[in-house]
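Quick one:
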Amino acid sequence: MSIPSSDLNKDNCVFLMVDHQSGLLQFLPSIDPLQLKNNIIGHARTAKAFNIPVIMGTSWPDGPNGPTMPELKALFPEVEVIDRPFVNFWKDDASRKAVEETGRKKLVISGLATEVCAAFPAISALRDGYETYVVIDACADFNPLITQVTTQRLAAAGVIVTTWVAVLAELASNTQENGVHIGRLLSDHVGQYYAAMNNFIGVASNADEVKAGLGLTGNPPISAVGV
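Output:
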């Protein structure tokens, strides 16, 4: 297991979003499609929230892999998607140069599929002295077994395997300063958090009225039986 030299922060990392293409989304069912879409967009919006550089690439966009997800292109209209002939993102001169020009040594990588589009550049960049993270739930494969095997391969090689919410939390670091990003992104892209946030907002805005109406005067407000 690899231990990173430092925490992720907005100044030391770059997001590589590799081959998030509309065609690939249709035939990589290891994650529920709606959940996968939310994970990818939530992860991308994390970069947007913290002004982190994003590099996007595609492979075989004119073939069955299809073009980059339109949601990502809309989110980053200023980012030129690099179409490459190489399977491995890291073997493509234009893609690697785009990373080098950021001057950042921590690469936060996601891609479709995990076993190739995320794993290959993660391991290749690791050899070249970069710290590499793979956001496993913003990736997908032909079946869950492939993801499991790839996760083991990545971890054994020294890649840091993580999730998009963990990346968000690590970048946010301080809830007093960055809680707005956590609250907004989790509410938008994690169904359970959306329900909890709605409940909190509804209850908080009516808490005094509810307590008065039910005659709850204890501390905590719901009185214990027999007290």
